[in-house]
Amino acid sequence: MDAISVIRAKRDDQALTDAQIDWVIDAYTRGEVADEQMSALAMAILLNGMSRAEIARWTAAMIASGERMDFSPLSRPTADKHSTGGVGDKITLPLAPLVAACGAAVPQLSGRGLGHTGGTLDKLESIPGWRATLSNPRMMEILADSGAVICAAGDGLAPADKKLYALRDVTGTVESIPLIASSIMSKKIAEGTGSLVLDVKVGSGAFMKNLDDARELAATMVALGTDHGVRTTALLTDMSTPLGLTAGNALEVRESLHVLAGGGPKDVVELTLALAREMLDAAGLSDADPEKALADGSAMDQWRRMISAQGGDPDAPLPLAREQHMVPAPTDGTLTRLDAYAVGLAAWRLGAGRARKEDPVQAGAGVELHAKPGEEVVEGQPLLTLHTDTPERFDTALAALEGAYEVGTPTARPSSIVLDRV
Ligand code: URA
What we know:
Pyrimidine Nucleoside Phosphorylase, Chain A, domain 2, about 15% strand, Aldehyde Oxidoreductase, domain 3, 3 domains, four-stranded mixed beta sheet, 16 helices, binds uracil, 13 strands
């Protein structure tokens, strides 16, 4: 077998054989297939696609490239959630302790942000003392003890995806349904969760810009999970405007704490509860009441245990950026549009995200929203507040926001953040 014949086959729109797929993933993981060869193959897959059978084999080969975790010794059922990535998507933070408070074990292996979407680990690292890295035995210990863990995936889990994702990120080959589905599901299946709920984002701030593509991605991932014995469902949710009122690391932790205290923005609470119900149903805990767990403080108690178990101080003040800049509403009227991608880009340019994976992020940087689409605003009132430690970044963040919002006469908006279920 050789890389050139595999690349040529996909370039000429042929289906790859099982043997070709197994060989190319294994040889790439071992370094025998070079990055430039794999990037040519990834581009051919992006342009010509893969059949469901090819995607299934590609995913199985990526799982086989590393270790598989096993949570069967735990006495509770396991449930996990994965979001395809959005702006202001802090849902994992209130959701993991909430679902654990309702009786499930939540092994949430999360990532860092790259580009305009934030990463859960970057958000949690704004809590003084909190550490993302855990050994597998320590992860099991915390799960058995308190039920929820949010930590970095170890290097042993789907190493083929780790290499391939980094390569796709710099070769314009992220936005491919076969490659996204196999990347996400290889990690989740190798992680060993018993059930999985996928939050597939749709809109300007997401990889999938329209409902049809999002449905196809969701159906592909649900089929992959189900075939590997993981009870998998998906919600398609709106990402045309940021989720909640904040995009940025410490800003989003603060908002998550409001949700855990029984408050918080309506869309964040609605999505947290919708995903919690899906996870609890999939874990066989349909009688649990997540609304009650938010109201009676048990989800917040669980959060405090989860943060302390990883060295964090749940009572420490969260960092604030040194400088703020207010963006006023241009006129009186209804805010009809506030674009998710533009806000994500502005937060990233303010220092909340990174351009290369080794770059540091600013804990306090980001964008705070003072109104959501559908709400009335008055000329001159604060519409957005930009936060950063490095005020020379305000100009490029403001450039990202040019044309990103409109104030005018009200237009019809979806009544729920959840657009569909697969
Ligand atoms: N998240 C992943 O883990 N992989 C992708 O390909 C896209 C989003």
